[in-house]
């Protein structure tokens, strides 16, 4: 059964906005999605009725808050095909990737003792990323390399932005300790070959980190089936609140890693000189947690599951094709990433010949159409493709065919306006 | 059972035990020692078991904690003295399922003795760990006794 | 003009809760405060009308979101007596303290180059904290010491929990590089002598880090006047949302510190091998920010300023005295921290002779009274005072005299119930 | 002025300049060089100034950016050639205040020439940096010229 878009839209108050005398056409969901009322309500109900700090209190509100917080963790675990102990709450995907990078460098300094030895890095060790990564999945590894003396090695992309699997085969080798890559590119919309990459990494015992930011909102994820060691995502990109994200890690890995952030609620005992740490996930959740946001994210995941992730994915693929087909048909437009007919999510980066993406964005904004312009935090990819910037349209479950049509119509008029 | 009255949680026999603390003090010659900590509140217990011929001869303990954890340790030391390891495990299982019953299981008095007075704890989920503290230490200690 | 408590209470939906057939008496505000509707509404209005990622987009919603986000920063700066560039958004106080500790250890590894030299630590250098710190202001410094070889030195407290200034004079010296301490103790309610401690640190050029978590909700803060180098606070303790906090830092210091979290929106340019970083505060705000939460915190600060921080402080002191006086009058109760009549905020930690704090908390919860039990993330302080745990009642602007009376009445009946 | 029509932002003369890019290309023998970057979008400019006898003889530039930034650089190079340093600074001040006026200042055509066509930018705050890019580079460059 296809999605009932009208019914869905009714649940997103932000979509009633008008912009520059036009109804808002929000095609910037890959940056941050709009949120359905059930998510806003879940947060508000918590804050109005159960708000308390979790895990620390014996009073009724604290017990209720703890229960809601932990059942939200179970909910996310179910959504991702993981166990609750494998779900660590973070402030977002960026925080989650930094958690990994800092925990590994703490291990490299001897923290975490023997169990953490497998995370120690030093000269000769290699961290492998791809050229199409979002900065969040690149700079933390650059810094980790700088801190430990390990070497960062990129897997390149070809002129069409496809990951060069021939290069992957060469780059991933016995020195590879970590392989980190995006499930779905936030510029190209392409879905990377997880199974092949995991197989390469497994051959050499490297840890695999999956950046699932742009896949979690669109695809049905089964992290156990994908067989990655770690995965990260951000709630705000998948209909959930800002300020919440998830680090998934295989349990035995999380339990062996030294802490990253330290403070309250992650310890068993604290002396003035030193502290003992709880097992994961508590070990990685220092301080007061974003409880209302975790509950909101669980509500978002409920919302998605009620739609059905299969249906969501189908609709998303349809929108992706509509974007790429429509854009390709417009003279002077070059679409980045997969050609029409090839798999892509509902996201398309493109170039308007002779018009800078800022001007493209401004033109569309005048029509109430919100797209993203710039390098989308993927500067190396743009440089590789010989671009300084691009424009990106990205969809969500609330995107209509009429919105795509309005967008394509707008794009079709840009070059004339700028006499390009 | 309902939460109506706090006396359903803190039954008189529980408060008695929390003061009397049967078995308090470590054994001179323990067969096994184990240590338990309640992560949510920092309460601790050290538990000694003396066993011989497949039988738990006695249990001694020290530590600090709330009335529930202290009473529970006190009751435990009454119950398990003289039990075989298997009987011990049966007690443990019954005790745990009573605590997890959310008020549906009043406990098996024949098996658990005074510890059925802890059945009220099952209506206070955050306190279940308090009641379990000594018992999880026992469970852990048992794994270190051969036979 | 004293606060109109009834009018204030009407704005806190959570206070209408009933717990165990009693009206909720929420005396756990030091753990996390309840939130007024204006805060919830500010977040919701943003999410329903302006939600977009900030700083990255050219479209109308993104521009609005950026404007709201940055004006919230200005609002917090005004509240704290700082400049907007000196306000870094973090996920909370714990995250803010970790930011400092990790930035300093990154500097110690040579990151940040010459400008960051003043933050480099190594063997021989000393970090000074106090024995009454919350774990959040202790463990990050322990870990920093472990990472750099610096030594952590505590300033002790006396039997009454008072900071030993005689020890402070001895401990703070030419090797001291950082002095970190709580403005107000979250267990004792005592206000530490900031001016004296700052003067000691200044004599030796040490950096001063103020943990303002428990002062910001109660006192009027002027960070410039307090003359500290850094300060941290958490929004959720001062009527604001969860998941947002502030790091204040003197501008020239923030601009010289190397980044902590890395990722999107904190860079000027990114190559595959390395990245260049923006100046602060952007340098420290990697990834999608908690925009709705920042806006909510600004609304909380508006709310406080409308009440008037002088009035808030006055009322708070009154409540603190009511607690300590009332508790002291009950047989078998020992109050921690300042004696009646001495300055304290609206917070009192106490011991019920012969009754464990968990049981105290349970007894009060039965009456609908929410207090905190345990070591309140200050285990070393409890150990120093010979305690495993204590009970803590803490107030906020919405606390009534009747609530304090109900609490005192409840406490008075505890020992009989447990036959202590 | 209002935002009514996007042509108020992208006036014809602006679009012309964005294509023509007067002064594009670096100078052979610059007195000062400066570099500007628009942090929010990554647009860049390199600006060369040749000065002598207290007068800006010419300005050349390269870089990439949106129509507004390119047009602005193009207009700048028309305007400042032949100006004294002080005149240059006056232009800069007037230009900046026009952009910050939120539609209230149409600009001084005598002083700013074609650059008054950028007055519409003041109604689009996120674009002000685009229009300022070349001018901030100029300001920076001027500090490196003595006299
Ligand atoms: C004095 C003090 N410092 C730091 C913290 C940590 O704050 P948060 O848990 O919000 O990060 C708290 C509260 O828990 C506190 O009371
Ligand atoms: C592929 C990818 N990875 C990581 C991130 C970073 O996520 P966040 O900014 O929510 O931390 C994003 C989004 O900005 C992304 O698209």
UniProtKB/TrEMBL annotation, chains A, C:
E.C. number(s) listed in UniProt: 2.8.1.7
One Pfam family per UniProt: Aminotran_5
GO biological process, one term: cysteine metabolic process
Record GO terms (molecular function): cysteine desulfurase activity; pyridoxal phosphate binding
Cofactor(s) this protein requires: pyridoxal 5'-phosphate
Leader sequence residues: none
CDD domains, per the entry: SufS_like (cd06453)
Family, similarity comment: Belongs to the class-V pyridoxal-phosphate-dependent aminotransferase family. Csd subfamily.
Functional note: Catalyzes the removal of elemental sulfur and selenium atoms from L-cysteine, L-cystine, L-selenocysteine, and L-selenocystine to produce L-alanine.
The protein's name: Cysteine desulfurase
Naturally occurring in which organism (per UniProt): Terrimesophilobacter mesophilus
TrEMBL record, chains B, D:
A GO BP entry: iron-sulfur cluster assembly
Short name of any one Pfam family annotated for the protein: NifU_N
CDD domains on file: IscU_like (cd06664)
Signal peptide: none
GO molecular function per UniProt: iron ion binding; iron-sulfur cluster binding
Domain NIF system FeS cluster assembly NifU N-terminal span(s) in chain numbering: 10-130
NCBIfam families: SUF_scaf_2
Protein name in UniProt: SUF system NifU family Fe-S cluster assembly protein
Natural source organism: Terrimesophilobacter mesophilus
């Amino acid at each position: 059964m296809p999605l009932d878009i009208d019914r869905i839209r009714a649940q997103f108050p932000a979509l009633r906005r008008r912009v520059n005398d036009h109804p808002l056409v929000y095609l910037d969901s890959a940056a941050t999605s709009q949120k359905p009322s059930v998510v806003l309500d879940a947060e508000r109900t918590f804050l109005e009725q159960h708000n308390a700090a979790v895990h620390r209190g014996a009073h009724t509100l604290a017990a209720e808050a703890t229960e809601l917080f932990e059942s939200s963790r179970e909910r996310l675990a179910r959504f991702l095909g993981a166990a609750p102990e494998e779900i660590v709450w973070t402030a977002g995907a960026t925080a989650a990737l930094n958690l990994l990078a800092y925990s590994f460098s703490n291990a490299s300094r001897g923290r975490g003792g023997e169990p953490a030895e497998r995370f120690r890095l030093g000269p000769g060790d290699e961290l492998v990323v791809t050229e199409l990564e979002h900065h969040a999945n690149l700079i933390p590894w650059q810094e980790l390399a700088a801190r430990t003396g390990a070497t960062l090695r990129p897997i390149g992309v070809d002129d069409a932005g496809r990951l060069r699997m021939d290069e992957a085969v060469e780059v991933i080798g016995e020195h590879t300790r970590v392989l980190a890559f995006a499930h779905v590119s936030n510029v190209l919309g392409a879905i990377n070959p997880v199974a092949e990459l995991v197989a390469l990494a497994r051959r050499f015992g490297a840890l695999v980190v999956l950046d699932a930011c742009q896949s979690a909102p669109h695809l049905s994820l089964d992290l156990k089936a994908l067989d990655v060691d770690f995965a990260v995502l951000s709630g705000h990109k998948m209909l959930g609140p800002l300020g919440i994200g998830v680090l998934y890690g295989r349990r035995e890995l999380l339990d062996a890693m030294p802490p990253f952030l330290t403070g309250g609620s992650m310890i068993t005992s604290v002396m003035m000189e030193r502290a003992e740490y709880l097992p994961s996930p508590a070990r990685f959740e220092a301080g007061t947690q974003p409880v209302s946001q975790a509950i909101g994210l669980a509500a978002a995941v409920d919302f998605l599951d009620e739609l059905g992730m299969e249906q969501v994915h189908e609709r998303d693929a349809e929108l992706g094709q509509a974007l790429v087909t429509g854009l390709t048909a417009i003279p002077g437009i070059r679409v980045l990433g997969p050609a029409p007919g090839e798999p892509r999510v509902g996201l398309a980066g493109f170039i308007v010949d002779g018009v800078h993406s800022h001007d493209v964005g401004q033109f569309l904004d005048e029509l109430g159409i919100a797209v993203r312009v710039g390098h989308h935090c993927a500067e190396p990819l743009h440089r590789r493709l010989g671009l300084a910037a691009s424009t990106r349209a990205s969809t969500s479950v609330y995107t209509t065919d009429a919105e795509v049509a309005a967008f394509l119509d707008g794009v079709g008029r840009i070059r004339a306006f700028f006499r390009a | 059972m309902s939460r109506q009255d706090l006396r359903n949680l803190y039954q008189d026999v529980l408060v008695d035990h929390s003061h009397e603390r049967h078995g308090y003090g470590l054994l001179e010659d323990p067969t096994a020692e184990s240590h338990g900590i309640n992560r949510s509140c920092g309460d601790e217990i050290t538990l000694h078991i003396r066993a011989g011929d497949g039988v738990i001869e006695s249990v001694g303990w020290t530590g600090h904690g709330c009335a529930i954890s202290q009473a529970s340790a006190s009751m435990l030391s009454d119950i398990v003295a003289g039990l075989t390891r298997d009987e011990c495990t049966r007690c443990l299982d019954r005790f745990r399922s009573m605590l997890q019953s959310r008020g549906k299981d009043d406990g098996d008095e024949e098996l658990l003795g005074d510890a059925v007075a802890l059945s009220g704890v099952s209506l206070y989920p955050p306190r279940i760990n308090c009641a379990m503290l000594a018992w999880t230490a026992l469970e852990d200690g048992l794994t270190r006794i051969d036979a």
